Amino acid sequence: MTAAAPTVPAAHTTVPWPQARRAARRAGARTGRPTAELPLAEALGRTLAEPLTALTDLPAFDTAAMDGWAVAGPGPWRLAGRVLAGRTPPPLADGWATGIATGAQLPPGATAVLRREHGEARGEVLRALGDPGPGQDVRPRGQECRRGEQLLPAGSAVGPAVLGLAAACGYDRLTVRRRPTAELLVLGDELCGSGLPGPGRVRDALGPLLEPWLTAAGAELLGRRAVRDDFGLLRDALLGSTAEVVVTTGATAAGPVDFLHAALAETGARLLVDGVAVRPGHPMLLAELPPSTPGGPARHLVGLPGNPLAAVAGTVTLALPLLDALSGRQPSPGRYARTAGDLPGHPTQTRLLPVRLTEDGPLPLAFDGPAMLRGLALAEALAVIPPGGLPARSRIELLPVPA
Ligand SMILES: Nc1nc2c(c(=O)[nH]1)N[C@H]1C(S)=C(S)[C@@H](COP(=O)(O)OP(=O)(O)OC[C@H]3O[C@@H](n4cnc5c(N)ncnc54)[C@H](O)[C@@H]3O)O[C@H]1N2
Ligand code: MOO
């Protein structure tokens, strides 16, 4: 039998947009995160749980920076042998030179590298076309870092460059934050998961959009479920989810079958954000769910409005800052640009506008209605227009779009 929904008004104690974003970050930062030690390739996209400290001097030995000759003392030199990369060379006595390759270890006693194009070898004698000063074209041991030196702080995102640096200084594994688990619940009887939309039927656009976006934002997605417009089914879906972050779409407003507020009240959830002064997306919400096991970690629910661009606004405002904090990432300083012309705003609410980025500044795109994705699909950012709008040449914040 279908459970009757208790009457819970969508209270919508609307907060300013910057405050909502901060609340989401704070909620995630309060939650302790377990760590995992993973092989380098698996650490990609995670966050460092500990500072990255050099395990060795870099370079680990005095290295030839150019192809040519390692020389000891001033020239001309007597020439003997050669050193290739990967070998351990014997010492070089004063007045001697030996052929050397870029990346090879400098022989003990060598004072510089003479580039091939700067020297002339005749038989066993090497002359310089201009004497190399001491240390010329040598990368001295420890030039980039010393063993034990901190290279990156905890909280740094692990991208390909961090993997390269970690490998260069001797890491096989990295200690990273475990990814927060997430589940996506797509609400709405009118939605269909395949084929053409028809009379009264709407294709679920948010499942395909949010799944990869949340994953790219650091979540380990446990699954996506379609939930019918039924109070009991929604309540049970919330109670049954084990995810640390439950993301719902739709049912945030006060329509006849918008059961999200009622279901949250029934599960004992605490609303942290209930309505935000932003267009689109104002009915978005953030709640703290009771732990799925007594004493377990805090869980959260992000309620995204059903209108697709409003859901995108909810994602950048609440879901991404929450996932960022849960992933242990340091707050990013943000991206900014200068506006070309005036950008009109809402009198009291922040506007989030899909824009293209041009040399002159961000340019608003057409088809930016709350139910539309056509503008967003061309957008390179969402521009943040504070209440009242922005005059030309203003600094404007840019938020990420799904990529
Ligand atoms: N009386 C009022 N009505 C509404 C208000 C309001 O302030 N007073 N706010 C409007 C705004 S703004 C939004 S946004 C929506 C939010 O509604 P819900 O979160 O309850 O979402 P639904 O009613 O379930 O759906 C709204 C709309 O979006 C379509 N939808 C839903 N899910 C999907 C999906 N996965 N893929 C594509 N499209 C989806 C749905 O079919 C509806 O057209 O409320 C307004 N109403
Ligand atoms: O917040 Mo609703 O976002 O505009 O359509």
Automatic annotation (TrEMBL):
Ranges where the MoaB/Mog domain occurs: 183-325
Keyword annotations of the record: Magnesium, Metal-binding, Molybdenum, Molybdenum cofactor biosynthesis, Transferase
Family that this chain belongs to: Belongs to the MoeA family.
Name by which UniProt lists this protein: Molybdopterin molybdenumtransferase
One GO biological process term: Mo-molybdopterin cofactor biosynthetic process
Any GO MF annotation of the entry: molybdopterin molybdotransferase activity
Cited CDD domains: MoeA
SUPFAM superfamilies registered for this protein in UniProt: MoeA N-terminal region -like, Molybdenum cofactor biosynthesis proteins
Pfam families linked: MoCF_biosynth, MoeA_C, MoeA_N
Record carries keyword GTP-binding: no
Signal peptide interval: none
Domain of life of the native organism: Bacteria
UniProt-listed Enzyme Commission number(s): 2.10.1.1
